[in-house]
Write a structure and sequence with these properties.
The protein is an all-alpha fold. About 40% of the residues lie in helices and about 0% in strands. The longest helix has 6 residues. The protein is globular and about 15 Å long.
Length: about 25
């Protein structure tokens, strides 16, 4: 999901948008 960062919860919340930041 990528909520580990928590920088953009709105993006991770959807799970559709996964920037390189969360991809790491």
């Amino acid at each position: 999901t990528g909520e580990h960062t928590g920088n953009m919860p709105q993006e991770t919340s959807s799970g559709l948008k996964t920037p390189s930041l969360f991809d790491m």
